Amino acid sequence: MYLPTRTANNSATLIDNIFIENRKHYTIKPHINGLSDCDAHLITLNNFSLPFSNTEPSNIRNINKNTIAEFQLQLSWEQWDNIFGNSNVNDMFNNFLNTYLRCYYSSFLKKEIKSNATQSQWITEGIKISCKKEGTFFIV
Question: Is pLDDT of 87 > 70?
């Protein structure tokens, strides 16, 4: 189906693409907003379910005022001779990156957090209820 999202005097183009696996479970209609030369598509999803959320623990880096100060201190103690004393730009970059990452990883340690599915998702309960009732999303 060809539904243009941008129309001009002598042309109509589809500049936004939507890829969906199963064509039987949705319908697409144009949504003319009248605000610009670009319009939207209204997609209605039928019989969809929200994906199962992952409750596996994940790791984050501990970044705060103290760890930032530690990182800056470690960088200040570096000699940087292997970077500025080198004439090969690739070696200079690799030496800089290795030094930087060594300081980064030793300053900002990983800590494990256990994710709570209801707290970690951006989809709120209100959105879930609305989507189940309507089965509709706007894509611009």
Answer: yes
